[in-house]
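Dear colleague,

As promised, here are the two records you asked about, laid out in our usual form so they can be pasted straight into your sheet.

NAME FIELD: protein one
SEQUENCE, THEN STRUCTURE:
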Amino acid sequence: MSVGRIIETPDCVEEGATWLAATCPRMAWAMEQTGPLPLRRRPDGFAQLLSAIVSQQVSVASANAIWKRLRDAKLTGPRKIMWATDDDLRAVGLSRQKIRYARALAEARIDYKVLRDASNEEVMAVLTEVPGIGVWTAEIYAMFSLGRADVIAPGDLALQEAARILYDLPKRPTDKELRQMAEAWSPWRSVAARVLWAYYRVAKEREGIR
């Protein structure tokens, strides 16, 4: 299967946004509220996935602090993780479970360059085989580290809530329901996700929730 469109620049995001606005009036209305959408491209590779593991179930501030300690200790590469002792990794703030996940990621020996040309399905299959890398993390990696234009993360609660508000749904859509809704946004599902995340922030600020 082909990789499909890759989002490389703000112009790519704008192209997707224009298509979505022409296809769906509610998406067009949401974008009027949000203004220009962010590019959100990130590097790919081991460190990006290790950072995702570090961020699981902790606050943004805690995740940033742990990641800084990992960087300062030069523990962001697979060989360094494998050579480090559990005490070394605990000292920078990793829990026992996250140490296990970090080691599993290092031992997986993923060829990140090959992933750049793999289909979305292959990317998901390779990443979710690693303990600690779930579907949501793999989808986020595909969207932002690989720039895939037609991936969404329907398990994301903010996306579900934004879809509920924007489409005036009686309740928050499930992962499966949002995945079905997102078929209408193909081939620009990752741009639709950017719209929904941006709209979520606007909607919650209106409700007085920050």
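NAME FIELD: protein two
SEQUENCE, THEN STRUCTURE:
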Amino acid sequence: MGYHQDGKLYPVNDFMKSMQQNPGLRDTILTNNGFSISTLYDIYGEGNLNKALHYKIHTLATSYIENKGNGKFELTPLDIPAQISNVNAILIQDIDLDSFKDLVLAGNLYAMEPETTRDDAGIGLWLRGDGNGYFTPVPLSESGLYIPGDVRYLEFVKTRNESLLFSAKNNDYVQSIRLIQPVD
């Protein structure tokens, strides 16, 4: 994996991780400092990289995709609060009964490599929809939504008397949140 900076392609992985994955590199790159100033082409060679399988990621932003019809789709990144941590679960539901779909997001990612800190800044997020494809983040102080942990799945359940939001977490408990205003 690599990233572009100032027109050059650099490795994402550090020296030790790259050496573990490709022990043969020890013959080419002798020091951590040498690795730190090397491009992917310096490390692996232009011929090897040209023959390698290539995938490109154009954005890592948490986004929604709108079907515009006739095979046309539009990708729209969500606001900054939705970018704080990994999002693993998104529910589409009219939370405030204004006839517009809202989004509830939750996630985080605890299973990381030892040299990478876990993504654990997310506490869940309600994004209020306006019916025109824009979603406004509702602050915790207004929403009361608090879903910490390594969330993998969200589901709404409506009973006769109340509406509940369940969140399933990796290696943890299932959390239930009673919604004060029932959702349809």
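A couple of things worth noting about protein two: The chain has two domains: 2-51, 80-179. The longest helix spans residues 15-21.

Best,
R.
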